[in-house]
Design brief:
This protein is of the alpha/beta class. It contains seven helices and seven strands.
Length: 265
């Protein structure tokens, strides 16, 4: 276990899972590059929290739908940090609409953000790692919907399935360089994306989740930090569901659903 990561980049680290991840990696001794899309103030808060651990922080704005420029943002952050050992692709978005009602514009926006931009950024980070010859960690935050679909999420489901496939291929191709590639697939997490930012998930009851509640962003960050560490040196091509057991409820739900309410988003 000779890999010792010291520099990480986390996309969409201005809030939620991204912020928690940036702080967790800093606590593990890494300098962190933080990207943000619209919430500059949120990114500045993350930078402050990273620096409070004694680590260095750099930030940059990124729009992962702008494929011609987003790779350059990763390139710039890597240069400012002196390299990149860990890259966490956390940026993502979604839309709630049935397949028959989803516009091409919404489809393209979601897929461009969640998959096309992810490919460009992951590729650029991987090239840095290969050139440096130190090994590396590529980690993509997907979703339980990388594995199971959800009504009203055709674009999101397709993009997250695709991102999971991309990371599996990366694991095959980049292992020879000492680079691992893994996914973390969150279930419902108390963040701004689910309208629960700054809420204690232990106070929310979820009967359909075996652990009975949503997750905390720091619980996702803890798994990401492990996958970024030397201790995860033999883990690659995996997708870690961090969902309180939600995915295990599939067959169980069949005999317990008593209405057609699930057919609408």
């Amino acid at each position: 276990m000779t890999f010792q990561p010291s520099r990480a980049i986390v996309t969409a680290a201005d809030s939620g899972i991204g912020r928690a991840t940036a702080v967790a990696l800093a606590a593990a001794g890494m300098d962190v590059g933080v990207t943000w899309h619209a919430d500059r103030q949120g990114a500045e808060r993350t930078v402050t929290e990273v620096r409070a651990t004694g680590q260095r922080a750099e930030s940059a704005q990124i729009d992962t739908t702008e494929l011609s420029s987003c790779a350059g943002v990763i390139e710039d952050l890597a240069r400012r940090l002196g390299g990149v050992d860990v890259f966490v692709n956390n940026a993502g978005t979604g839309v709630s609409s049935l397949l028959l009602d989803t516009s091409v514009e919404d489809w393209r926006r979601v897929v461009a953000t969640d998959l096309d931009g992810a490919f460009v950024c992951i590729q650029r980070a991987a090239r840095w790692m290969v050139e440096a010859g130190r090994g590396g960690r590529l980690i993509a935050v997907t979703s339980v919907h990388e594995h199971q679909p959800r009504v009203g999420s055709a674009a999101y489901d397709a993009a997250k399935h695709g991102l999971g496939g991309l990371m599996k291929t990366a694991a095959l191709e980049l292992g020879q360089y000492g680079i691992t590639a893994n996914c973390v697939a969150p279930g419902e997490i108390a963040t701004a994306m689910t309208g629960q930012e700054d809420e204690d998930p232990h106070d929310t009851h979820r009967p359909g989740v075996p652990l009975g509640r949503p997750g905390d962003a720091r619980e996702i960050a803890a798994v990401i930090a492990f996958l970024a560490s030397p201790q995860a040196s033999y883990v690659t091509g995996a997708s870690w569901a961090v969902d309180g057991g939600m995915l295990q409820m599939g067959p169980q739900a069949g005999s317990h659903i008593t209405s057609d309410e699930w057919r609408t988003p």
